[in-house]
Every structure is written in structure tokens, then in C-alpha cells.
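Whiteboard transcription, Tuesday session. T.W. wrote the C-alpha cells on the left side:
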């Protein structure tokens, strides 16, 4: 376990002393794909578990509700 801790400390020290542009590029290269996968997974789980969402295949839930006419003569 000490070896992993030493390795992680070395990585932290290297990353904190690296130029900002390199730090930014590494963070984007790691975090952006992780965030995209996490968002997709959350969306997938929500679609499968939420009864109010109707799921991806429910056409009735996707249809907008009709809008009643407004203005003079709308009652006729």
C-alpha cells in the first residue's frame, strides 16, 4: 500500500509543478469523457426507472398537449 501512496504523491507533485496548459489538457482529457459517460448513464437509468418519463419508446408522452384557442370568437 505504501508503494501506491508514494506513486500517487509523485504524480501529484509532477502535476502540480506542470504548466497550466498541460494541467488543463490532462484534466479535460480525463474528466470530459468521464462526465459524458456519467451523464449518459444517469439518463439511461432515469429512462428505465421513472414511470413519469414514459421511457424512450412512449410516443404519447412525446406528443404535446393541444392548446385551446384564445381570443374573440374562440367559443364558437
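and on the right, the sequence the group agreed on:
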Amino acid at each position: 500500500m505504501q508503494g501506491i501512496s508514494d506513486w500517487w504523491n509523485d504524480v501529484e507533485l509532477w502535476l502540480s509543478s506542470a504548466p497550466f496548459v498541460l494541467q488543463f489538457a490532462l484534466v479535460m482529457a480525463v474528466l470530459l469523457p468521464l462526465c459524458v459517460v456519467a451523464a449518459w448513464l444517469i439518463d439511461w437509468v432515469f429512462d428505465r426507472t421513472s414511470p413519469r418519463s414514459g421511457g424512450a419508446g412512449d410516443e404519447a408522452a412525446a406528443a404535446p398537449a393541444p392548446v385551446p384557442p384564445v381570443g374573440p370568437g374562440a367559443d364558437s
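Someone added at the bottom: The mean pLDDT is 84.
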